[in-house]
Amino acid sequence: MADEESREDSKEEKKKSNKLLMIVIITVLVLIVIGGAIVTVLLLSEDDSSQNVQQAAPQMQQQNTSYRAARESDEGVSRKLSEIGILYPLDTFTVNLKSDAGRRYLKATLSLELDGKELSIELDNKSPVIRDRIIRILTSKTLEEISSKKGKQKVSEQIVDTLNSMITDGSVRSVYFTEFVIQ
């Protein structure tokens, strides 16, 4: 009889330990899911906060502010082709991306949307400086920064802001990537 009682006690202890083990496993899984959600929210909010910091920075030219506001209001709405201004094509850029784990290359071809024809003359005269500034912007980016749609939009805005701070005969409205290859 004592053997039967000890067997029943050991069966109950095994059941209790199995239940306790299941509770611990479920708790750990829930904590992992919650931790992943928190990390995701923090990473996404970091992108938004850095964008807000860039928008809060003082503008060098009044035109930049008006074009940025127009671009942000049209972000969700695509413009008709007839509304797009004069396009100024640039040569292809092949740059090394900023990377710790191996070499990554970006091959990109850009076209600038201008607000007037007179700006193309100034851009022709300053093309080496323009290429240098764009190369510096592209090489300062990592694969993670430019592989998303939001990342490409940030790069475009940074290029527009940089070029508009340099030119005097008008402004660049937008940047269009006609080729974008990462290797």
SSE order and pairing:
Layout: H1 2-56, H2 62-73, E1 86-96, E2 105-114, H3 118-125, H4 127-139, H5 143-146, H6 149-166, E3 172-182
Antiparallel strand pairs: 1-2, 2-3
Question: Can you give keywords for this protein?
Answer:
single chain; 183 residues; alpha+beta; 3-stranded antiparallel sheet; 6 helices; 3 strands; rod-shaped
Description of the structure:
The chain has 6 helices and 3 strands; from the N terminus they run ααββααααβ. It is an alpha+beta fold and 183 residues long. A 3-stranded antiparallel β-sheet has the order 1-2-3. α4 runs antiparallel to α6.
- Across the major sheet, the strand order is 1-2-3
Order of helices and strands: HHEEHHHHE
Let me know the largest β-sheet: 3 strands, antiparallel
Terminal Cα span: 75 Å
- Average pLDDT: 78
Category by helix and strand content: alpha+beta
Number of helices: 6
Low-confidence stretches: 48-77
Q: What is this structure, in a nutshell?
A:
60% of the residues lie in helices and 17% in strands. The protein is an alpha+beta fold.
